[in-house]
C-alpha cells in the first residue's frame, strides 16, 4: 500500500497541464470558481416554484445523503422512483453549472 508521501510524489510527477484549477473570481466579495462566477447572474435570478424544495448543506457534510433521503421521502420510499436517474439529475445543484468542455488529448 502506498504511503501518503508516495502519493504526493506521484502528483508532483504528473506532466504539466494534466490537472486544471479554475481561477477564482470574486462575486460580492466571495471567491468563486470561474464557471460558477460567470453564471452568477443566472443563479441570482433563480425563482423557486411553490413546490420546489431547496436543500442547503455545508460542503462535505452529507449533501448527497440529504438529497437521497429527501428524494426517498418525496417518493414514499419507492426504490424504482428513487433510482430513476443519478442523484445530480434528480437533485441538481443551483450553483454548479456545466463547465466548458475540456479539450481532449
TrEMBL record:
Its EC number is 2.8.2.-. It is an enzyme of class 2 (transferase). Pfam families: Sulfotransfer_1 (PF00685). Keywords: Transferase. Residues 50-97 form the Sulfotransferase domain. It comes from the Eukaryota. InterPro entries: P-loop_NTPase (IPR027417), Sulfotransferase_dom (IPR000863). This is Sulfotransferase. It comes from Eleutherodactylus coqui.
Amino acid at each position: 500500500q502506498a504511503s501518503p508521501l508516495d502519493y504526493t510524489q506521484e502528483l508532483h510527477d504528473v506532466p504539466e497541464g494534466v490537472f486544471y484549477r479554475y481561477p477564482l473570481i470574486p462575486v460580492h466579495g466571495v471567491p468563486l470558481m470561474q464557471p460558477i462566477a460567470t453564471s452568477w447572474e443566472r443563479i441570482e435570478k433563480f425563482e423557486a416554484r411553490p413546490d420546489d424544495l431547496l436543500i442547503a448543506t455545508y460542503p462535505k457534510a452529507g449533501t448527497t445523503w440529504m438529497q437521497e433521503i429527501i428524494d426517498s421521502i418525496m417518493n414514499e420510499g419507492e426504490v424504482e422512483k428513487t433510482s430513476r436517474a443519478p442523484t445530480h439529475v434528480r437533485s441538481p445543484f443551483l450553483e454548479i453549472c456545466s463547465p466548458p468542455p475540456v479539450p481532449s488529448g
